[in-house]
Amino acid sequence: MDIGSFMAIASFLFGMIIGSFMNVCIYRIPLKKSIISPPSSCTNCGNKIRFYDNIPLISYLLLSGKCRYCGQRIALIYPAVEILTGLLSFLLFIRYGPSYQYLFFFLFIATLVTISFIDIHHTIIPDVLSITGIIAGWAVSIVPGHISLVNSLIGTIAGGGSLFLVAFIYERITGRPGMGGGDIKLLAMIGAWMGWRPLPLIVLISSLTGAIVGIAFLLIAGKNFRTRIPFGPFLSLGAILYFFFGHQITIWYYQIL
Fold this sequence. Notes:
The chain is mainly alpha-helical.
């Protein structure tokens, strides 16, 4: 095996390790608990999870998806987040190789994934992730080879401002809040990292996927159409799809116009 293949595999394993830590963040941040201490424990029986039971994916398979002590089933979300983060890390490494761009954008995309799963479970987007992500986007824009600081700042204002305007108009017309403040700050964060130019297509992708998945969910679950569907995961999905396939999506979009 050559060094390139070894490092690509290592990037997948690295992504899964970070994905395991992201599971801690997904569980603890909404509960306002420390993500550092105490060590991971079973949410059912409270027993501390030993290091050999905390190996990404492998421990889940060896334990048949159950707690070693109480037999409580471990939610499938845990290995799913680890595998997803590993795959995204691998794709980023294939694009950038062992570079600072790989590390920067892995941080960005890992934050989007963390935000998405928190929003799915709790319908909130914690400021500690979105606002910190905005500041990080500004800081990274100073590094050569990235978008300019001006582009990052305009992206922040355009992203947050556009959703704020939509939310304001919707509430004035219907008398009901239609867009959470977390979504506004999330799109501002995406703009801080990606600039203002991709934002229209990201919002379009998010809206289309959100409408399709949301309507399907409401019909299958038999919910009322006023049921709130978190929009954060679809904004994150739109940003990730554009990040990896933006050129192809742009060509396809203008071809159908």
